[in-house]
Design brief:
heterodimer, A: 283 residues, MetI-like fold, two-stranded antiparallel sheet, B: 282 residues, mainly alpha
Chain lengths: 283, 282
C-alpha cells in the first residue's frame, strides 16, 4: 500500500532532486538549449564571484532574514501560547481568527503587506503620521534602510500564530502536578516558567526551531512579492537569488547551483545544531 | 497580603486581555485593509490621509477582474487542480499512512519515515528547474493534469505523516475483530477503520487543498498558456513594471483567499490537531 505514495515521491521529488544536482554542473541556459554540457564547478564559481550581485551580501542577508524572523516568531509565538494556555470563553474561535494566516499563501501575504507598507498610500505610513511618530511617509520597501526590516516584520506576522499553536500544544502536554509541586515549593511564575515549563517542552522547542529555520531559509515567497530582492539587493536572499536566476535570467545551471549551495548549507547546519542540542541535554 | 495577591491577579488578567486583543487586531487588520481597498475606486485609494471606510463603495475592481482579466477561467483551473490533487493525495496517504501505522518491521518503518520526513525538507523551488526539463522531454509541459500529479507528490509525504498519526490512535484489536468476522485488510480498512478516522481524512484533504491552492512557483514554471494560469500565477501576472493597479489586485487577492478561508473554516479544528500531531511528535 506504500507503493503509489513512494512512486509519486520518487518520480516528482527525489528524481528531480538528483537531476537538479546534475544540472548544477552543466551549462544549462534557456537561450542556449542546444549547448548543454558539463562544465564542472563553473556555475558555482560564477555565482560566488558575480560582480552585479555580491554573493556574500546575499549570504549575510539570508542569515539576517532567518535569524531575526525566527527569533521574533519564536518569542512572540511563545507569548501567544502562554496567554492562550488557560481556557477562556471563545478560545476556539479566537484561535481560529488568529491562526487563519496559516491558510494564506506567502505570496498573497507579501502582496497584502506591500500595499500596507506602500510609500504613498500605505496604512502603516498613515497610522505613523496620525500618531505623530513620523512627519512624512517613508518608502518602507524602496528605502534600503527600511526594506529588510519591513520584509522581516511581514514574515514575523505570518509565523507567530504557527509557533503559537505548536507551543500551545506542547504547553498543554505539561502535567499539572508538576506545577502544583512547584507552587508548594514556593516557586513564582517566572521560576515555574524557566524551571518547569521550558525544560519540559524543550524537545518540541528544539525540533520546531530546526524545522522553522529550514523553512524560513527556503521561503522566498514574501520577499519575491514585496521587493523581489531589492532595493539594490538589500533584501536579496539565497532563495530569491535562485528564483531570479531562473525566472529572469533563464540560467537554469546557475539556479540549480544555488539550490545545491542552499541544501548543503542547511545540511551542515542541521548536523551541527542537532549535535549542540544533544550535548546540552547530556550535561 | 490578600489585597496584593488580588491586585496581582487582576493585573495579570488585564495584561492577558490586552495581549490577546493586540494579537487579534494585528492578525485581522491586514485582511480588513485589503478588503476595504477592494471596495474603493482608484482615486480614493491614494487619498491621504486614508479613509478607513470607503466613502463611495464600488465593485468596479471585481468587475474588471472578471471581465478584462478572465479571472473566472483561472479560478476554475485552480479549483480543478486543487480538488483533484487533494483528493488524490488523500487516497494515497490513507493507504500509505495505514500501512505505515500497522507495519511491524522496525527497521523498515524507520527507513520509510526517513524518506517521508526528508522529502519535507526539500523546497519546491529546488525541484522546479529539473521538473521543467523532465516535463519538456515527456511532453507534460503546460498541462494542468500533469501539474496536479506534481502537487500530489508535494503534499503526500506530510499527508501520510498525518494519516499515520490518526491510524496510530485506532486500536489494532478493532481490525482483528473485523478479521475474525472474515474481513480482508482492505475491507476492515473500509468498513471499520475509515469511518472512525473520517475527521482525520477531512483534515488531510483541507491541508492538501490549502497548500495546493496557494502554490505559485511550480505553476509559473510548468505552465505557459494564458488560459491555463492558476489563481496565484494570475496574481503574479498583475505585477507589471509600471506597478500594480491596487483596485484590481486587492479584489483578486480577496477572491483568491475565499476558498482557502472556507476550507480552513470547515477543517480548522482538525487541521490544528493534525499539524501539531505531525510535528510535535518525536
Amino acid at each position: 500500500m506504500f507503493v503509489p505514495t513512494f512512486v509519486f515521491l520518487a518520480t516528482f521529488i527525489y528524481y528531480p532532486l538528483c537531476k537538479g544536482v546534475v544540472v548544477a554542473f552543466q551549462n544549462y541556459n534557456m537561450f542556449d538549449l542546444t549547448n548543454v554540457h558539463f562544465i564542472g564547478f563553473k556555475n558555482f564559481a560564477d555565482v560566488i564571484s558575480d560582480k552585479n550581485t555580491s554573493f556574500w551580501k546575499v549570504f549575510l542577508n539570508t542569515i539576517e532574514w532567518t535569524f531575526f524572523s525566527l527569533l521574533l516568531q519564536f518569542l512572540l509565538g511563545f507569548v501567544l501560547a502562554l496567554t492562550l494556555r488557560k481556557p477562556f470563553r471563545g478560545r476556539g474561535i479566537y484561535t481560529g481568527l488568529v491562526f487563519y494566516t496559516w491558510a494564506l499563501s506567502g505570496f498573497a501575504i507579501g502582496l497584502i503587506w506591500s500595499w500596507l507598507f506602500n510609500g504613498q498610500a500605505g496604512l502603516v505610513n498613515d497610522l505613523l503620521i496620525r500618531f505623530h511618530v513620523i512627519e512624512k511617509p517613508i518608502g518602507f520597501l524602496s528605502d534600503p534602510r527600511y526594506a529588510m526590516m519591513s520584509v522581516i516584520a511581514t514574515n514575523v506576522w505570518y509565523g507567530v500564530p504557527f509557533f503559537g499553536i505548536m507551543l500551545l500544544a506542547a504547553l498543554q502536554s505539561v502535567p499539572n502536578d508538576l506545577y502544583e509541586a512547584a507552587i508548594i515549593d514556593g516557586a513564582g511564575a517566572a521560576r515555574r516558567l524557566f524551571s518547569v515549563t521550558i525544560p519540559y517542552i524543550k524537545p518540541t522547542i528544539v525540533s520546531t526551531l530546526l524545522l522553522r529555520t529550514m523553512w524560513i531559509v527556503n521561503f522566498p515567497d514574501i520577499i519575491y512579492a514585496m521587493t523581489n530582492g531589492g532595493p539594490v539587493n538589500r533584501t536579496n536572499i539565497l532563495s530569491t537569488l535562485m528564483i531570479n536566476k531562473v525566472f529572469r535570467q533563464y540560467d537554469y545551471g546557475q539556479g540549480a547551483a544555488i539550490g545545491v549551495i542552499i541544501m548543503t548549507l542547511l545540511g551542515v547546519y542541521s548536523v551541527i545544531y542537532l549535535q549542540v542540542a544533544a550535548k546540552k541535554d547530556g550535561t | 497580603m490578600m489585597t496584593t495577591r488580588k491586585t496581582k491577579k487582576v493585573c495579570a488578567g488585564v495584561g492577558r486581555t490586552v495581549l490577546l486583543t493586540l494579537f487579534l487586531v494585528t492578525a485581522i487588520l491586514p485582511l480588513y485593509w485589503i478588503f476595504v481597498t477592494s471596495l474603493k475606486n482608484p482615486k480614493e485609494l491614494y487619498t491621504f490621509p486614508l479613509h478607513y471606510l470607503p466613502r463611495h463603495p464600488t465593485l468596479a475592481g471585481y468587475k474588471s477582474l472578471f471581465s478584462f482579466s478572465n479571472f473566472g477561467v483561472y479560478f476554475k483551473n485552480s479549483l480543478l487542480v486543487s480538488l483533484g490533487a487533494s483528493f488524490g493525495a488523500m487516497v494515497l496517504s490513507v493507504l500509505s499512512g495505514f500501512a505505515l501505522s500497522r507495519l511491524k518491521a522496525k527497521k523498515g518503518k524507520r527507513v520509510l519515515e526517513l524518506i517521508l520526513y526528508f522529502s519535507q525538507t526539500i523546497p519546491t523551488f529546488i525541484i522546479m528547474v529539473p521538473l521543467f526539463t523532465i516535463f519538456q522531454k515527456l511532453g507534460l509541459f503546460d498541462k494542468l493534469w500533469a501539474l496536479s500529479l506534481v502537487y500530489i507528490a508535494t503534499v503526500v509525504a506530510f499527508s501520510t505523516i498525518m494519516s499515520r498519526s490518526f491510524f496510530d490512535k485506532v486500536p489494532v484489536s478493532l481490525e482483528e475483530a473485523a478479521m475474525i468476522d472474515g474481513c480482508t485488510t482492505v475491507q476492515s480498512l473500509r468498513h471499520v477503520i475509515l469511518p472512525i478516522t473520517l475527521p482525520g481524512m477531512a483534515a488531510i484533504f483541507c491541508f492538501a487543498f490549502i497548500n495546493i491552492w496557494n502554490e505559485l512557483f511550480l505553476a509559473v514554471m510548468l505552465l505557459m498558456s494564458p488560459d491555463k494560469m492558476t489563481v496565484p500565477v494570475a496574481l503574479n501576472s498583475f505585477i507589471s513594471k509600471a506597478g500594480i493597479s491596487w483596485d484590481t489586485m486587492s479584489a483578486g487577492i480577496i477572491i483568491a483567499l475565499l476558498p482557502t478561508m472556507i476550507v480552513f473554516g470547515i477543517g480548522q479544528k482538525y487541521i490544528v490537531a493534525g499539524l501539531t500531531e505531525g510535528s510535535v511528535k518525536e
